[in-house]
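User: Some background: our group keeps a shared notebook of sequences we're curious about, and every so often someone picks one and asks for a predicted structure to add to the entry. Today it's my turn. The entry only has the sequence so far, pasted here. Could you supply the structure so I can complete it?
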Amino acid sequence: MSSVKPEDLVIRAAEPQDDATAMPMLRASLGKVDDPHYEAFLKWKHRDNPFGVSPAWVALHEGVVVGYRTFLRWEFLTEEGRVLRAVRAVDTATDPAYRGVGIFRTLTLQGVSELTLAGDGIVFNTPNDQSRPGYLKMGWTLARQLPVGVMPRGPRSLQSMLTSRVPATLWSEATDVGLDAAAALADRGVAQQLIEHAPTAGVRTNRTPEYLAWRTAFGPLHYRLLLAKEADPSRGGVFFRLRRRGEAVEAAIIEQLVPDRRTGASLVRRVLRETGADYAIGLRTGPSAGLLPLPRQGPLLTTRPLAASPPSPGKWALTLGDVELF
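Assistant: Of course. Here's the predicted structure to add to the notebook entry:
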């Protein structure tokens, strides 16, 4: 445990000049030292987000960043169609030499306080087993387990899926199946036609052309768009990427903007057939793309009120695009 006391630290909102000492600390603390995409990934996630630049807070000791906490801005639509401003508790790190001082808790509660005063509605995230108890102690509550579904390509692929129970790789496998999502969405009209098939029930992400373009834009993630009918986005499509999970190749279905379940299931089968992926995975919301439920699996969604009350557990209608990566 560090000999530094809480009163020795300066806690304040992050400023651009903090990157010089924050970035090496983040890389070292989060195991990203050898990741060539890390800075660009953070810029895409926190600076280019159409919902707004991510607010962040730092802890400094003698002018050096030793703790960092940021919240990703997000927007949901309620069942009544109102915009619910939200933030997601995401990247956080403490210099190993300063652990035990309470930096994570201090920065998180500072952020919660200032975001509440600024009028942000709720904070949400899907913390892992290690960090979840800390969030629950700070006022987060468990909302629900998000419903995961899968579609194996066949019996052999099912075996590959069952034996590859390890974390998936962050960066994607390249494929030429479908369209490059970023290039396709450079035409705003493509996004507008696809959004016509966006869910209209439950609490869901505020899908705008700007959101879809940003969400699928980061190059190393190789997001693809497979349309139900070539060159006709009005018939719907699915966004996906391929990633390694052990010996298996997984097709992550992040968005299903389709008119009906039959179209969704057909498109996911095409993804599997044309890419050779072992199985598809996504969240069973909306048309659910023919995905079969995986009982007692899936990330645990936690929420905390800021200036508004979180939706009731049964109201959430999230997709994999709302929760993966962040």
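Suggested note for the entry: The radius of gyration is 20 Å. Residues 50 and 317 are 21 Å apart (CA to CA).
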